[in-house]
Structure formats: C-alpha cells, structure tokens
C-alpha cells in the first residue's frame, strides 16, 4: 500500500471520540482524522464509505492451536492475540485463520516462557514446543530476543504457583527488563497466592487473566490500574463451573476498572470455547463487573494494549456511538484497510 486511503465516512470512532461525516485517512497504522492541521491533504473527490468504522474489535486472549479458527462462518472479531503456542506451528495456523477470515489481524506471543518444569509444561493440551523453560536471565534474554526477531506482538510468561515452579523475584525482574528492552509488552498468566502482586512488583505490563486466586487489596488494585492492562477472561470460570473464582475475579476487575485500569476483552478461546467470535457470556460478565457502555467498547478495541492495526471493524452507517455499537456487535465485520477502497469505492 503506497499511501493512506482518504475517505469520507458516515461515522467513525477515532481515538475514543465519535465523528460524523468525517474525512479520515486509513493506513496500516489505523484511522486518523484529516483536518485543517493534518499532513494529509484533502483530495478533491474522496471516496465515500457509507459505513461506520472502528478500530479492530479484538479478542486479546486466544489460542488458535486449540480453537476452530479456520472454520469459515463470519466473525465479528477483527483482531486476535494468540497467547501461547508452538512458534513453529503458528505461521500455518495464522495463514489458515486469515484465509478463513480475510479481514482478521492476528498477533502472536509464541511459546509460554516458564520456570523449568513449570505450568503449562505438564498439560496435555500444550505441545512440548509451546513451552520454553527459563532458568536464568540469559535464558530469558535469548528467548525474548528470538520472539522479537520473529515479529511477536507480546511475550507470554506463566506464573502459576498452583501447578509447578515459578521464576523467583530476581529472574522475574530480569524477564520484565528484557521484554521492555525488546519493546514487547510482557503478558503474565498469574495464578496462585501472591502471584498477581509479584507480577505487578516486577513490572509485568499485562495480566492474561483477571486475577482470581484471591481478592486483591484496594491498594494493589489501584497500583495495578496505573500500570497494567488486564485481559478479562471472566467467562472461563463459568465454563469451569467455579462460581467462587468468578466472583473473586469479577470483584477484582470491577475495582480495577473503576480505578481507571485498562481492561481488554479476552475469552481464552481454545479453553472450553472453540468458535472464533465474540462470546456473549464474556460480554455479559464484563457488564456485571461494571464494564459497559464506552468502557466496554474500549475493552473491545484494546487500544491501550495493541498498536493500531492494518484492519478495522466495519458496521452499518447508522451506528453512531458506543451504545449503538454494542447493540450492533453481531453485524460488525473485519476489513483490511487495504481492501476498503476496492470494496466500497
Ligand atoms: Zn490462555
């Protein structure tokens, strides 16, 4: 693609703000407004897009290797983030997924980094190559630099003291520093007493799941809200039939969101749920945690977690605000910005 596609759209959500009948520039780096101060000149006859455009509706926690991602029914998702699989198997999985869903953007972590013998190395669902044991800071450096070179979007770390050993504080800090040096957000699966607090203290950027092991104190939640993104994954506890875990996670997430923390919608697709689409139970669970309206749309777009993509979500032109988006989610379709001009000119 040479330059941005400049188009006049019925409605768009740009940087969290709704604009109507707006001139926008669409490029590999998302949707930008074209205005008097803009570097992009207004064309004499811009394309008209009789639709509403949003940044990509995102599921920030999927495992393509465990899902029916290549199944061809239309999806309302425009972007997914794979949080753990064999890196050698990922290119074929991503290719099959995007062949079935041409508008979809797929980001990946690659393997789970974990303490040697740690979770999920003992799980039947995890192929051996999906798990990389990290015993030292130099192991961490090697693994994280390899992920950066492979084009990963994030680094995934397992910190599950209920299912095996976890890195000690010094190694955890070294992993966080290495991810920061590589420019990759560090996403941790924190499970077991005290692990969410350890992740926060070490500088982990993102929790792959809302913490559910224990009720976190208001002080910890407030500190987390300043520094972290939490990926929701509340409905997995419903699927597990664990009402107590669901209640603890819902309470933690409600306070995190109320304190201004960045919430990202995530389903843990592949864990008890297979279809690549928005999960109504996850949406309902987020609402029960008080994440609704504009906050729910923010969670669905995950703009504080991932950079603007080469894809957008397309909705009917009458969708003119956050409430209208939530009412029309099942009509959202992923579209690659590259194809918009051809599809809609
Ligand atoms: Zn997962």
Automatic annotation (TrEMBL):
UniProt superkingdom: Bacteria
The cross-references to Gene3D superfamilies, in alphabetical order and at most eight, read:
Metal-dependent hydrolases (3.20.20.140)
Q: What is this protein called?
A: Imidazolonepropionase
The organism named in the record is Agrococcus carbonis
